[in-house]
Amino acid sequence: MTLICxxxxxxxxxxxxxxILKAKELGADLVELRxxxxxxxxxxxxxxVVDYLDIPKIATIRSKAENGFWNGEEKxxxxxxxxxxxxxxQYIDIEGSTDIxxxxxxxxxxxxxxxxxxxxxxxxxxxxxxxxxxxxxxNEFAGGAAIAKISVTPQKxxxxxxxxxxxxHLKAANKQIIxxxxxxxxxxxxxxxxxxxxxxxxxxxxxxxxxxxxxxxIAETKTIWEILQG
Length: 230
Prior knowledge:
The protein has about 230 residues and is α/β, with parallel strands linked by helices. It is about 40% helix and about 20% strand.
């Protein structure tokens, strides 16, 4: 089954709730809550967003080092993610660069709350080689990921095809994998990635609401899929 995930990138709770509602109305299967966009976080703010509407949610708080906006203490970031689980988040996305001790705490919390942990690797400059990407994903699984994610930057079409090959390889091994090639030349992974085994594809709510370079809107994604299924 092909899943469409809409990132929620609003700067306040009310706009975030409106975006979640619109994403559901447009047919999103799940939403990714980019909580680092909301500024200073507390339990009330987190609960208002995570507990809003009956649609599966990925909770993540990206640090500035990962092209996000969080600049607080790491222990607070982790505790906020655990709070998301207590409010019913079905997924937590944490970077592979996060200290292994914190990842272990999140893995325990996910298990206790029957949620799935996504461990993600982002490369905003290049695309590693095919075997290196496979090894990165294997390390993510070894670190407790239920779903491994790679999001990389292509320099040529071969890079894009390598991402697709990695997804296909790991899916054949019965692993849950999200593979994204960013930028314009990587857009094919957002359309065909799920067809070779990517767990989901990210699509923005509308133009200007992208959380990463190269995202199509949910309307564009669904239209292209309908044409291809023809």
